[in-house]
Amino acid sequence: MEDLRDEPLLPAPRGPVSSAVQAHLRGTGPLPSEQDVDAAPVYGDDLQLALYLCYELHYRGFAGVAPGLEWDPELLRTRAALERRFLGALRADARRHDTVDDALAGILVEPVDGTGVSHFLRDKGELWHLREYAALRSLYHLKEADPHAWVLPRLRGRAKAAMAAVEFDEYGGGRADRVHARLFADLMTDLGLDTTYGRYLDAARAELLVVVNLMSLFGLHRSLRGALVGHFATVEITSSPGSRRLAEAMRRTGAGPAAEHFYDEHVEADAVHEQVVRHEVIGGLLEDEPYLAQDIAFGVDATVFTEDLLGDALLADWRAGRSGLREPLDQVAQDSTHTS
Amino acid sequence: MPNSPSDAPRRVTVQRKGPLLLEGPVEVELEDGSVVSSDRFRVALCTCRRSRRYPWCDTSHRDRA
Fold first, then answer.
1. Residue A23: how many other CB atoms lie within 10 Å
2. CA atoms of A141 and A191, how far apart (whole Å)
3. Which residue has better confidence, A78 or B17?
4. Is A274 on the interface with B (CB under 8 A)?
5. What is the C-alpha to C-alpha distance for residues A267 and A239, in angstroms, rounded to an integer?
6. Which among A41, A170, A178, A290 has the fewest CB atoms less than 10 Å away?
7. Is residue B3 part of a domain?
8. CA-CA distance, A169 to A175, in Å (whole number)?
9. Which domain holds residue B25?
10. Cα distance from A111 to chain B (closest Cα, Å)?
11. How confident is the model at residue A339 (pLDDT cuts 50, 70, 90)?
12. What residues contact residue A333 under an 8 Å CB cut-off, 6+ apart?
């Protein structure tokens, strides 16, 4: 009988911790030791991939991995150990503002001479940079809005209604061809990339895993609902101007109509979402639970911090003329012939 | 003559700094008589006139530093 399952393939391990988690998923070995978890660099490939493997069981799972492992107590214990290190590092390293207004003030100002990834791509980006960028971001955009949907049952009233409305927009307002994840897949097709979910996980550097793991961490824990809302607000606030620069990059390089449309759509949509999230979601949540103010500010700070980690690493490689991926895309494209 | 009591008033949110927020969908008639529409659940109308996607807000009102 034809196997209709299409879960992503397990990625290659990147060290003792991710290797042990993977072995556990395959049912062939023990979970990582406490010493290995404690010794792994917190923002590094090994720890972040291990965490990514744990989290992905809550989204689409992996081929050959029993779906029930999502709630395996032993695996959850390991996940909790990884999360303690990740969250502890973020609380120490991400610059902390005590109030939501202070945290948001920094990202509500547009730098005149911005030096971020979207500025680089607008001014100097070549098609190969855009392809690498899209391959990396596909780890989030092919499940766009999913990590944030988990916060809905933890909100009430005004905050819940507004959050659901924004998510409805992210999910295409009831139209499958307008789901943002679908618009991103169309962009990938324009760029000659493989739209298979999880296809570029092996190519994704640690800093990208950090960015996506942050969303899953905040989304999966009710205790971090304030941080999730702060994170979401940061994404929406920074998206509109960044998307305009990326749309310009797509136009200048002739990437294609769907590639332009994805970012054009986000310029307008996120200018609205920003307003709704700031006034209704954050405003409503603070009315209901004013003691979450510091958590919301932390969510903003942690998002800015992790995006900077990714941007700095990517730009260092690109400015040196190197690929920003763990495996160059051409090799990835060749590999795709025997994995699909 | 009064409106029907069943007509809920349309809520428009104004901000000193930022777009006008309306419940969608809306049609906007521009100065030249052309009409553009948006079917979003909430629509942000540019008031600073700096938007490159006028009449829709594109966050161009933000301070630059």
1. 15
2. 15
3. A78
4. yes
5. 7
6. A290
7. no
8. 10
9. 12-65
10. 5
11. very low
12. A192, A194
> Is residue B6 included in any domain, yes or no?
no
pLDDT of residue A229: 98
How far apart are the C-alpha atoms of A27 and A125, rounded to whole Å?
A: 44
pLDDT in tens, B19-61: 999 999 999 999 999 999 998 999 999 999 999 999 999 999 9
- Contact between residue A108 and residue B62 where contact means Cβ atoms under 8 Å apart: yes
User: Which residue, chain included where needed, has tokens 């999913």?
Assistant: A146
Pick from A165, A173, A271: CB nearest B57: A271
State the average pLDDT for chain A. 94
Amino acid (one-letter) located at A113: D
Domains parsed from chain A with CATH numbers: 16-93 (no CATH), 100-338 (1.20.910.10)
- Which class for A277: exposed (0-12), middle (13-18), buried (19 or more C-beta within 10 A)? buried
**How far from each other are the two terminal CA atoms of chain A, in whole angstroms?**
18
Quick check: B13 and A240 CB within 8 A? no
Distance, C-alpha A138 to centroid of its chain: 9
Asked if residues A155 and A163 have their Cβ atoms less than 8 Å apart, the reply is yes
- CB-based contacts of A149, cutoff 8 Å, min separation 6: A167, A219
Tens digits of residue pLDDT in A218-256: 999 999 999 999 999 999 999 999 999 999 999 999 999
Q: Where is A211: in which H helix or E strand?
A: helix A206-220
Measured between CB atoms, which of B40, B52, B65 is closest to A272? B40
**pLDDT of A185 strictly over 90:** yes
Number of domains into which chain B is organized? 1
Residue B51 belongs to a domain: yes
Single-letter residue type at A188 = M
**Helix, strand, coil fractions of chain A, as percent rounded to 5:** 70, 0, 30
Specify the DSSP class assigned to residue A191: T
| Count, residues in chain B | 65
**Helix axis angle, A127-141 relative to A117-124, nearest 10°?**
150
Give the residue from A101, A107, A110, A238 with the most B CB atoms within 10 Å of its CB, the best one to mutate: A110
Distance of alpha carbon A226 from alpha carbon A283, whole angstroms: 12
Contact A272 B59 (CB under 8 A): no
